[in-house]
Amino acid sequence: MTELDLPRAMIDTLTAAGAWVTVLPIVLALMGGALMLVLRQAGRLSLLVALVVVGAIIACEIALLIRIAEVGPVSMTMGRWLPPFGISLTADLFGAAFALAASVVTFVVLVYAEIDRDTGDRNNNFHALVLLLLAGVTGAFLTGDLFNLYVWFEVMLIASFGLLVTGGSAAQMDGAVKYGFLNFLATTLFLLSLGLLYGLLGTLNMADIMRVAPMANSAAMTGVAALLLLAFGMKAAAFPLNAWLPAAYHTPPAAVSALFAGLLTKVGAYALLRALVAVLPASRDLLEPVLLILAIGTLLTAPLGAIAETNLRRGVGFLLIGGIGSVLAGLALANANGVAGAGLYIFHAMLTMTALYLVVGLVERRTGARDTRQMGGLYAANSGLSILFLVLILAAAGVPPFLGFWPKLILLEAGVEAGGWGAAVVGALVINAVLTLIAGARLWSHIFWRNAPDGTPEQAGQGAAPGYVAVGALTLAIVAAGLWPNPLIEGGQIAAGDILDPARYVSAVGLAEAQP
Amino acid sequence: MDYILAILVGLFIALGVYLLLSRSVIRMLLGMTIFGNGVNLLIFTAGRVTREIAPIVPPGLATPEGPIANPLPQALILTAIVIGFSMFCFLLVLAYRAYQSLDADNTDRMRLAEPPNAPQPPLSY
Q1: Contact in structure between A194 and A146 (CB atoms under 8 Å)
Q2: pTM, whole model, 2 decimals?
Q3: Binary contact (B114, A247; C-beta < 8 A)
Q4: Which of A171, A246, A373 lies closest to B124 in CB terms?
């Protein structure tokens, strides 16, 4: 009988108390979602409990960030099996920072959504679905295993389906059919590439793949990477796979649109960053021309859509896609500055795009219209709203000193360093900023500056106080981060170092000394 | 055996893609399901097909005697089947609700969220 060497296969020590912060955000969000189902009839108590849960998640994620800043990436493996057999949750600086931004955004949206409480646009399941969506997003940001990432994608997808159709209007059904099919197809393609990857390497643990991928057939690996690019590109709304986003994101209530804008496409962009740049860098190098075309195409086409669009939220949806173009530009350059810029841009876009959608929700509420042709004169009626909108548009376009400027500056530096095709990326980034500014200025002057169209009913917009508080606080945070970007930039550079040189990541999972 | 399964996977995925290209939502849904099953079969094949050796450790032993079938792809497929089935159920109900609301099973006629023939940009501002 073979003697079993348990310590070589199993984890036989207790997890240190401090290490639990890696898994706690996900556990809290899932348990919170279950609790919200119990409290679905509880009215305001339900909101209060949801805010406490998200607050606790934020606290855990801050603790996680501090821990990562001290010791580098941290990892925790489930089910007592040692990695690569147990499923690892591995958080590095980017993952933890995005998870933190996701829960902050969720907190703000939960407060904001109070203004929709009595409009019949939502039902009692709203808080449960929001927390389940947060669980999926947080899991996707913190996981260290590709199959686990697939599962979190599906958790996120089913929660977003529920949020998207709540309200049940015909336009929502129309948008949900397109959103549902294309996103389900994207996750199925992701699963397809996982099957091939497992057949090639026999492992799905990200750190383990980093070790063994260089020894596999590089043509086959690049095929898998191309499938991953297709799947995550659909998720992230990269050109030309982005038609579902402006078809669906404007149909649900504004709070839900804002949540989607802040969380869903960013998870796709993060998955691209993780899978292509960190896990399969050799295949990314071979796919670089494709990434360049995707990045430049997204950067140039998206703001043109925003300029042409008269439906306000559809227009903002195109601006959201333009931001994804900046992230793709960073992935296509993939030097230290490119990765840092892409990561910082994801962080910035999570906050800014959510705030922009929330402001748009307030504008729609105030004017009672969804189309800019029926808007006007709002500056006289509500100048505070016009300032919020302008600040967020400037932040999205990347005008200094607002938050969007710093990642774009780093991306421009990366393009100049890269030379060759980098020059085209630099040009596309600059043109994107100008076009975004034109689109934003056009929206601003039409909504706020020109005279109100004749026969505009006087909208009181009562009871929107929680909305103004939520958006105001988030916008203040964005402005403060833009004026004091040093911690973000330094953190981004450290995180980019960990993405490009995975030694610390692999040793955190505990696979450094094992021979492949 | 692997080759037969590989051809079957190709057939499933080709049929799924063909149905997904249709304009009818119900056909797209069937295509999605067949595509998903093709992917499940692909994971099964990629995990190396082994005949009739169950991955069970005999009592009293710590490791199995000799080679066994790989249990991991089966766990992966089981997860994927459950997820795929729940998505199928949701999309089926959604298709029915969309049919009720929009009176259309044809995606060409689902233009409520994106109105066709909108005026050209500078004139429409």
Answers
A1: yes
A2: 0.93
A3: yes
A4: A373
